[in-house]
């Protein structure tokens, strides 16, 4: 996903608002737009999974070895970035922005987690409406304001089925809904509302960013977390398309969690042929955000990628490229826990029909063309996170 179709920026229209760039910047930049393919470091790496192929596993006694392999991989990727002077020059520009704040100033953001648990939640409504525009689309017809719709905010699948960005209003706050995006704001008890009636209508890309139990997160009180074993209840296999799905699971750097995920959680979901990827975080000048060897705060995160309903030994893979090795993506991080968009980076590795049907679980922002589920998917869709390029957007 590039910045014009990322989960924090609406459509590619030149009149669409673009994210503002306060400090720290509110969005992350996809590594695919920063580094050429030559700089995506690929290297054989121990893999996990319960597929038919034999896999090399790492025991607890091999933790030091795993860390040394990761360290070498990350240093190699960072060295490649520092050697690319043209890319280093782009980093400050990518994190900058032009235009005025789209939504002005506001005292505080809405706490959708608290609102969703309040007795008034069933009565909360959001107003959707298309922005007025005199521009002409590809069919040489002007786009019109088609009016407004009032719908229930919680426990309801809300979608923008147009090719334009939609503005939405809730309690005097403006939110931006990207083109062809949908969201379902609920807690874990309602997630099965998204399970398709038939597996042929399932998803080909499933991105999961769970609120893992983590001491540092609890201390910062940035967002509520769940006990790790709650995630066995996620209907990942039921969400997957019958012709295959690529599953992306974001992790913390705790070894105990990594072992739990590899040995129990992913097999419980039916995910096989797992490959680790790494997100290396840098400053706008290209330097690491902190020392690579800091114990409590490391400048990288891991995400594991595996397959569901795909037999890599027997299934024809002409329609997608099978992931075989670890990669490192590099970007400047944004607000707390916001991840870089991955769709375009992984596009050629997604099995099943095209265009891929994509969903993000525990989402805190929306992506054009995706369904986003969680208890605060509008968190970073507040107009305060966008820049205003035209005078005919939110009034």
User: What is the average of the pLDDT values?
Assistant: 78
Structural class: alpha/beta
Helix percentage: 10-25%
Ends apart, CA distance between termini:
29 Å
Pick out the low-confidence regions: 1-16, 20-60, 132-144, 391-395
Question: Which range does the strand content fall in?
Answer: 15-25%
Largest sheet: 9 strands, mixed
The total count of strands amounts to 16
**Total of helices:** 7
CATH architecture: 3-Layer(aba) Sandwich
- The top level CATH class name: Alpha Beta
Order of adjacent strands in the largest pleated sheet? 5-8-15-14-9-10-12-11-13
Q: Could you spell the SSE succession in H and E letters? A: EHHEHEEEEEEEHHEHEEEHEEE
Shape: globular
**CATH topology assignment:** Rossmann fold
CATH homologous superfamily label:
Vaccinia Virus protein VP39
What are the salient characteristics of this protein?
about 400 residues; alpha/beta; Rossmann fold; 9-stranded mixed beta sheet; 4-stranded antiparallel beta sheet; globular; disordered N terminus; disordered C terminus; Methyltransferase-like protein 2 isoform X3; MT-A70-like; methyltransferase activity
């Amino acid at each position: 996903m590039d910045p014009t179709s990322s989960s924090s920026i609406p459509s590619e229209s030149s009149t669409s608002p673009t994210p503002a760039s306060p400090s720290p910047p509110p969005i992350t930049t996809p590594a695919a737009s920063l580094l050429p393919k030559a700089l995506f470091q690929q290297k054989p790496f121990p893999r996990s999974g319960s597929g038919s192929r034999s896999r090399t596993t790492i025991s607890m006694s091999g933790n030091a070895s795993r860390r040394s392999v990761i360290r070498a991989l990350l240093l190699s990727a960072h060295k490649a970035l520092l050697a690319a002077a043209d890319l280093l020059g782009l980093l400050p520009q990518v994190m900058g922005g032009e235009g005025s704040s789209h939504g002005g100033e506001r005292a505080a953001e809405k706490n959708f987690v608290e609102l969703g648990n309040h007795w008034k939640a069933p009565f909360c409504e959001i107003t959707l409406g298309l922005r007025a525009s005199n521009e002409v689309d590809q069919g040489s017809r002007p786009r019109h304001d088609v009016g407004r719709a009032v719908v229930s905010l919680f426990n309801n699948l809300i979608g923008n089925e147009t090719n334009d960005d939609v503005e939405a209003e809730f309690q005097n706050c403006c939110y931006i809904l990207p083109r062809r995006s949908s969201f379902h704001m609920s807690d874990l008890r309602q997630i099965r509302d998204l399970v398709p009636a038939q597996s042929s209508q399932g998803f080909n890309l499933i991105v999961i960013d769970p609120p893992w139990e983590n001491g540092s997160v609890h201390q910062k009180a940035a967002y509520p977390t769940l006990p790790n074993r709650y995630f066995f209840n996620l209907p990942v296999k039921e969400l997957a398309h019958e012709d295959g799905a690529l599953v992306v699971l974001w992790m913390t750097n705790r070894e105990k969690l990594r072992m739990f995920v590899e040995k129990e959680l992913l097999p419980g979901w039916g995910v096989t042929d797992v490959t680790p990827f790494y997100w290396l975080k840098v400053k706008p000048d290209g330097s690491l955000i902190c020392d690579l060897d800091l114990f409590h705060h490391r400048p990288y995160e891991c995400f594991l990628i595996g397959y569901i309903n795909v037999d890599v030994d027997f299934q024809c893979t002409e329609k997608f490229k099978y992931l075989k090795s670890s990669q490192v993506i590099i970007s400047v991080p944004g607000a707390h826990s916001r991840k870089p968009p991955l769709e375009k980076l992984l596009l050629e590795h997604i099995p099943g029909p095209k265009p891929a049907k994509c969903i993000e679980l525990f989402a805190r922002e929306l992506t054009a063309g995706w369904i986003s589920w969680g208890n605060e998917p509008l968190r970073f869709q507040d107009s305060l996170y966008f820049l205003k390029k035209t005078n005919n957007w939110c009034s």
